């Protein structure tokens, strides 16, 4: 192997967001929620925020499906909004979405995704990566904790968001996904911008956690 060859883009994007990953993971809201110190109301509020985020990601799928940069990433088996709707109906009843509003940080996050989807497909890829590859990885830890803490049926209503029924082998899927990242048809400068957008995506997630933390302030 050529030692001077640049690292694959999938490695670059992962290492570039490493610190921010730790920050998101260790935010007091996440720690309290996953440490079993918060009630199901906090989990519901968190899941509601995901609804707005995934609606922004997935309402753009149709328009981007044929895009040469973002299109290859759009896979129907990743879609999460139907599962979120089921989880939220379980958590909030059939009228779960009546009057539902995002937190300000969530609105900002969803607006940025929508903006990228409209104007910058490679930026959309940064947001796509940050959410879906995370859900396929650490999301599985969150599911187990949620099942134990709030008594949801294993892989059932309440945690369907974390269950990718049509992805039999998540490790293989992630490998394919990383190969797509490595083959992203953009130049080096644009790749740098995508890495920056990925950092921004992490920061937008952390901002949502901070607002949730203020609503459910156990660690304070
Ligand atoms: C408590 C919460 C979290 C836990 C326990 C967690 C845990 C993990 C774990 C164990 C991995 C696998 C690492 C590897 O394969 O080397 C991972 C990967 C990942 N996580 Fe998280 N995570 C959490 C929160 C988040 C958040 C909030 C985001 C961003 C929205 C995120 C985004 C990612 C991404 C993008 C990857 C894939 C990295 C890659 O392989 O390229 N995670 N996470």
Structure commentary:
This is Biliverdin-producing heme oxygenase. Keywords: Heme, Iron, Metal-binding. One of its GO terms (molecular function) is heme binding. By secondary structure, this protein is mainly α. It has a single domain, classed as Heme Oxygenase, Chain A. The chain has eleven helices and no strands. Helix 8 crosses helix 11. It starts with 8 loop residues before the first helix and ends in a 5-residue tail after the last helix. The mean pLDDT is 95. The protein binds protoporphyrin IX containing FE (HEM). The site of protoporphyrin IX containing FE has 16 residues, from helix 2, helix 3, helix 8 and helix 11.
Features:
220 residues, Heme Oxygenase, Chain A, mainly alpha
Largest sheet: none
Total of helices: 11
What fraction of residues sit in β-strands? under 5%
Secondary structure: helix percent: 55-70%
Instruction: Supply the number of structural domains.
Output: 1
What name does CATH use for the topology?
A: Heme Oxygenase, Chain A
Radius of gyration from CA coordinates: 17 Å
Q: Look at the helices and sheets and give the structural class.
A: mainly alpha
Topology:
Blueprint lengths: L8 H8 L1 H8 L2 H7 L5 H19 L2 H4 L16 H12 L11 H16 L1 H16 L2 H12 L19 H13 L5 H28 L5
Helix pairs in contact: 1-11, 2-11, 4-6, 4-7, 4-11, 7-8, 7-11, 8-11
The structure holds protoporphyrin IX containing FE (HEM).
